[in-house]
Structure formats: structure tokens, C-alpha cells
Amino acid sequence: MLLSEVKSYLQIFHLELDEKILKELEEQKQKAISDKNEPLANELWCLIETYNIQKKYLDMFRNLKYGKYESAWLLLDEIDISMGFLRANFGDGIKHYNLTFINTMIKNYEKVFPDYVYTSRESIIKSEKCSICGQIASLRGGCKHIPGKLYMGELCLRMITDFEFLGIAIVKHPLDKYAIIKIEGKDYNYEVLEYLIKNLDSPFRPWYVEQITRKKPEYVHIGRNDKCPCGSGKKYKKCCANTPNEYGPHFRITLLGGEEMKEEPINYSGRWVDKSENT
């Protein structure tokens, strides 16, 4: 298959990707390396990453449809990391192959996932080496290879050879978002994501989400002298009335290229729900 044909294939939306395309790209990259054709080898690495991103995006959507939300989140994070490396090496190619669309959509999906909490390792890196030449990296010197850049079809990374583990921190915004914290008897609240996926008919249907603040349903028709819905036992007028406590996030999701989703409130009721509520 000609490279031009492979490129044309990758520029079209597919619900299933042909594995022969990946095999063809890998074979052509090995030939470019054998021929010492670095520009072509680097371009083929970018096209292989493009194929992998497209596949992970399809797998992510499939996992969402099956309710496998954490698996979908891990794929989303992998796509985001791959996009960063690809953006640094592909030039104008990042504008093609539906990559701009996928990047936009994963940012939208992030907004409707629950507010995960993560663990993050704390450690001191004592020694690392270049993945391209194997030379030990140091502040005073080392090789000329730049981490994150391509060399003869291979991505330069720093490989840790020795480190000291210090501890584990609980964080909300780690560099990598794999280690999700779970609480016994609790599950993350996926109500907004579930509402979206129920109405989304294709991974290629564009949509966007707006988050606004709206009065919580339990406070809408409450009388001033009624007991406050917060459970304090006080009268509403002496408790949560006219305070931020009676307002919460509301999500309005719009499907593009067609109808707008029904204007029913999607109120986010908090990060956690009891697992019994989901069974």
C-alpha cells in the first residue's frame, strides 16, 4: 500500500480501524530506518501514533457505552499524553487526521467525568539515562538528545535507573492521572456522564458542555419558615436562605449537527455516591 493511501485512510472517520494499516506503517518505518531516512522514519512514527490515538478514542467511547468509566478515563489520559508528544513532532500534521477533533472532544469529556482524586508518588531521581543513546543524563552534561523529540523514528525519553521513594501524596491534579483513589462503600458520581452517553449516538458526533450555577431542586419551592433541606433542623430563612449552600453546579450539554439535548436539569450532587445506589 502506498503511503499516500495510508494517509488518506487515516483522514476518514472509521468505527473500526483496519489492523493492516498499522502493520503497513510499522513495516515502512523499519525500512526507512534501514535506509537511514530520518525524516521519513519520524513521519511514520507520527502516523503510527495517529493510528493509536484514533483506536484509543474508539475504545474509550466503547467503554463509556458499556459503563466502564474508569477504563475509559485511562484511555482518555493516554490520548492526552500521546497528543502532547505528537504535537511537538508532527508540525501541521496535527491539524489533520481528525486529531484536532479528538483533542477537542477529550477535553469536553474531561468536564463531565466526576472530580477524581488521585495518589501521586513522591521520589528523588538519582540517575537516569537517554533512551536513544543510553548515556547517563546529568545537569553538567550528557548527550545532545532532547527528551520528547524524535530521532530516527524513536521518541527520546529519560529512563530512570535509580531513585529514592519518599511517599505517596493525595492530589487533585497530578501529571499522570492513573492512580484513582477509591473509598470502600462509595463510588464516584457518574450521573452527568451517564446522561451524556445515553444521548450520544456516535463517537464522531460533536458536542459541548456548559457548567452553570443553579438553585438545587430541594430549595426551589421551600417556604421561608419550613425546615431547611440541609438537615440542620433550623428554619430555612435562618439557615441556607440566600447563601451559596442552596446553589449547585448544573450541566447543559448540546449536541451539534442536530438537536439540542432536552432542557432537564443535570445537577451534580457531589463527588461520591453510595455503591448501593448504583446496583
Architecture overview:
The chain is an alpha+beta fold and 279 residues long. The chain has three domains: 3-112, no CATH class; 118-171, no CATH class; 186-278, no CATH class. The chain is 35% helix and 20% strand. The chain is built from seven helices and eight strands. The protein has helices at 3-10, 19-34, 38-65, 69-87, 99-112, 191-199, 217-220; strands at residues 118-130, 150-151, 154-155, 158-171, 186-188, 207-215, 247-255, 272-274. The strands form four sheets. It has a two-stranded antiparallel ribbon with strand order 1-4. A two-stranded antiparallel sheet has the order 2-3. Helix 2 runs antiparallel to helix 3, helix 3 (38-65) runs antiparallel to helix 4 (69-87) and helix 4 (69-87) packs across helix 5. The longest helix is centred in the N-terminal third of the chain and has 28 residues, at 38-65. The chain is globular.
Unreliable runs, pLDDT <50, ≥5 residues?
Answer: none
Number of helices: 7
Strand order of the largest sheet: 1-4
Rg over C-alpha atoms, rounded to the nearest angstrom:
24 Å
Q: Structural class, please?
A: alpha+beta
SSE string, helices as H and strands as E: HHHHHEEEEEHEHEE
The 3D shape can be described as globular
The tally of beta strands, per DSSP, is 8
Q: What amount of the residues lies in strands?
A: 15-25%
Determine the fraction of residues in helical runs and give it as a percent range.
25-40%
